[in-house]
Amino acid sequence: MARYTGPKQKKARRFKEPIFGPSKALERKPYGPGQHGRSRFQKKSEYAVQLEQKQKAKYTYGMLERQFRNLFKKANAKEGVTGENLMQYLEARLDNTVFRLGFARTRRQARQLVTHKHIVVNGIVVNIPSYTLRPGDIITVRPKSQNLTLINDTLSTAPKNRYNWLEIDKKSMSGRLLNYPDMDDIPENINVQLIVELYSK
């Protein structure tokens, strides 16, 4: 399955952001891992800066290189701005949307819910985390899974309608993708233009 399974906190410290969720390790050591992690003299090349943004996006959304590259090609072939198309495709992934709706605390948890067939899309069980949703699609927790403690605890603390491109109904444990998000609405700190420049070389 296309996902990173190595040490999460090292990556969070590398990017100096809690990309996998709350990170106590990053709070204790807000600098990169390794013997040069604290160095103040880290001059990066243009390529290194672009690569870092691509790696951050891959780890944030739980993808490996081939899958990410294919998604970029799809975004590049679509009409409109390539960077915006890419971020919209990333946000429209089923596992990410399950996370955004508040059914899971992290994308990893959301991925597990999807692969274990706890999530229904338009009345049909979908167990593919990378499944791309379309505006109007309804995402629901499977009736047999609505008593799961993990989902109920997470959903009870999740704010209602936190994202303006999603509609959430906590009572029925369902949500709807209203439209693809605008770049300004996506909370992830990713410079997508650098990713476009990297793949355009």
Beta percentage is 5-15%
How many helices does DSSP assign? 9
Give the distance, in angstroms, between the N- and C-terminal Cα atoms: 28 Å
Overall pLDDT: 86
Task: Tell me the number of structural domains.
Answer: 2
Under CATH, the homologous superfamily of the largest domain reads Ribosomal protein S4/S9, N-terminal domain
Report the CATH architecture of the largest domain.
Orthogonal Bundle
Cα radius of gyration in angstroms: 18 Å
Q: Name the CATH class of the largest domain.
A: Mainly Alpha
CATH topology of the largest domain: Ribosomal Protein S4 Delta 41, Chain A, domain 1
Given as residue ranges, the uncertain stretches (5+ residues, pLDDT < 50) are none
Percent of residues in helices comes to 40-55%
Describe the biggest sheet?
A: 5 strands, antiparallel
Please provide the count of β strands. Answer: 5
Compose a concise summary of this entry.
The protein is 43% helix and 8% strand. The protein has 201 residues and is an alpha+beta fold.
Give structural notes.
With 201 residues, this protein is of the alpha+beta class. The chain folds into two domains: 8-89 and 189-199, Ribosomal Protein S4 Delta 41, Chain A, domain 1, CATH 1.10.1050.10; 93-179, RNA-binding S4 domain (Structural Genomics Hypothetical 15.5 Kd Protein In mrcA-pckA Intergenic Region, Chain A, Roll). Helices cover 43% and strands 8% of the residues. It has helices at residues 8-15, 24-28, 46-61, 65-77, 82-91, 94-101, 107-115, 149-157, 192-199; strands at residues 119-121, 124-125, 138-141, 166-169, 174-177. The chain has a five-stranded antiparallel β-sheet with strand order 2-1-3-5-4, covered by helices on one side. Helix 5 crosses helix 9 (192-199). The two termini are 28 Å apart. The mean pLDDT is 86.
